[in-house]
Amino acid sequence: MSKIAVLSDGSWGTSLSTVLCRNGHDVTMWGPFPDYLKQIAETRVNSRFLPDVELPQSLKFEKNMDTAVVDCDYLLLASPTQFARSVIWQLKDHFDAGRHTLVNVAKGIENDSLLRISEICGEVLGSCDYCALSGPSHAEEVSRGVPTAVVAASNTAGVAEQVQELFMNDFFRVYTGYDVVGVELGGALKNVMAIAAGIIDGMQLGDNPKAALITRGISEMGRLGAALGGDPLTFSGLSGIGDLIVTCCSGHSRNRHVGEELGRGKKLRSILEDMGMVVAEGVKTTLSAYQLARQAGVECPIINEIYAILYENKAPAEAVNYLMTRPSKPEV
Q1: For all residues of the chain together, what is the average pLDDT?
Q2: Is residue 125 classed exposed, middle or buried when 0-12, 13-18 and 19+ CB atoms within 10 A define those classes?
Q3: Cα angle: 304, vertex 306, 308; to 5 degrees
Q4: List of residues 6+ apart from 184 with CB closer than 8 A
Q5: Where is 153: in which H helix or E strand?
Q6: Looking at residue 277, what is its pLDDT?
Q7: Beta strands 148-153 and 129-134: pairing type?
Q8: Labelling 241: which of 57, 135, 187, 318 has CA 20 to 30 A away?
Q9: How many CB atoms lie within 10 A of CB 157?
Q10: Ramachandran area for residue 112 (φ above 0: left; ψ -120 to 50: alpha; else beta)
C-alpha cells in the first residue's frame, strides 16, 4: 500500500482517486476550496464534476496542503494546466524531493511561458522524480470501471514502472514509456483537434471530414511534437492517436463540446460561461500551441485555423474552406 495525495477536486483527480482506493492505497484528496471539499466529504459525491459517482468510504479529504502531502509517497497533480503553477507553488514548501514522486495527469501547455507541466515542476521544485500519465481516458468512464488503457512516461529509471504498479488493475491497464515530452504534448495538442472535431459535428458535415481531421491532425501533432523534442512514434500510441480518437468522437469530451457549439454558431464567451467551472483545456492550449508552432517554424494549418476561430472571430465555415482549398501537396 502506498500513501497518495491527490491535489485537485476536479473530475479526473476524483476518478483516479477511486481507482487508487480500489487498489488498496491510502488516498487523500486536497482541493482549493475548503467549503466544497467539506461538502464532498459529507455527501461522498463530487456534485460539480462527477455527480453520478459515489466515492469510496476510504477516500479522505484534507483542506491543508501541508497535512495532505505529509508522509506521502506519490503526489497526483490533476489541476487544469492554467492553474497548475499556483498549486505547485503552494506545494513548494512541503515538497520532499527525496520522498515524493510527482504524477501529472493534466493535459495542456501553460500560456505565456509555453511550458509543459514537467517543465513548470522543474522550474518551481527543482530536480524531482516525475511521471506523466496520459491516454484515452474519460473520467466518467474510468470511475465506472470501464476498460481503459493509458501510458506512464518518466525520464527517471524505474519511476514509470512504479506508477504502472500503483494504478494497474483489471479495468485500468497501464503501459510504460520514456518520452515525457511526447506524452505531454500528445495529451495537450489533441484537445485542439477535438475542438476542430466538434466544429465539424456542430456544422453537421458528416463522417468524411472528421476522419480526415483525425488523420491530418495526428500528422500535425507529430510534426510539431518532434520539433519540440518528442519522439514521433509516441504520437502513434495511446497518448497520441489513442487520446485523439476518443476526444474527437466522445460525448464526454469538453473540448469537442466547445467546438460543437462553435459550429452551431454560438460565441466562445457564451459557451464558456455556460460551462461554469468545467474547464476545456483546449481553448487555452490552442493559444500556446499556435505560439509554439510559430516559434518552431512548423506548419500547423489546423492549429492555425482553430486559433483564428477562437481568438480572431473567424467563421468556422471560412476556416473549413481555407483548409480544403490550400495548395495541393503530397500526403507524406
Answers
A1: 97
A2: middle
A3: 70
A4: 104, 107, 116, 117, 118, 132, 134
A5: strand 148-153
A6: 86
A7: antiparallel
A8: 318
A9: 9
A10: left
State the catalytic residue, choosing from 38, 107, 190, 314: 190
126 phi-psi bin (left φ>0, alpha ψ -120 to 50, beta other)? left
The radius of gyration of the chain's CA atoms, rounded to the nearest angstrom, is: 19
- The Cα 23–Cα 167 span in angstroms is 7
94 within 8 A of 65, measured Cβ to Cβ: yes
What are 19-73's pLDDT values in tens digits?
Answer: 999 999 999 999 999 999 999 999 999 999 999 999 999 999 999 999 999 999 9
314 annotated active-site? no
Cα angle for residues 210, 321, 297 (degrees, 5° grid) = 85
Q: What are the distances in angstroms from CA 18 to CA 13, 14, 111, 302?
A: 9, 7, 31, 36
pLDDT at 297: 98
| CA atoms of 265 and 271, how far apart (whole Å) | 10
Q: Is 240 helix (H, G, I), strand (E, B) or coil?
A: helix
DSSP summary character for residue 144 = T
Q: Which residues contact 96 (CB under 8 A, 6 or more apart)?
A: none
Could you give the angle at the alpha carbon of 149 between the alpha carbons of 145 and 152, nearest 5°?
120
Burial class of residue 176 (count of CB atoms within 10 Å of its CB; 0-12, 13-18, 19+): middle
Helix (H, G, I), strand (E, B) or coil at 4: strand
Contact 184, 134 (CB under 8 A): yes
C-alpha span between 122 and 143 (Å, rounded): 31
pTM listed for this prediction = 0.96
Phi and psi at 6, nearest 5°, equal -100, 115
The stretches in the chain having pLDDT less than 50 are none
What residues form DSSP beta bridges with 27?
A: 4
List of domains in the chain:
3-178 (3.40.50.720), 184-324 (1.10.1040.10)
Calpha distance 79→106 (Å, rounded): 6
Q: How much is the pLDDT for 332? A: 84
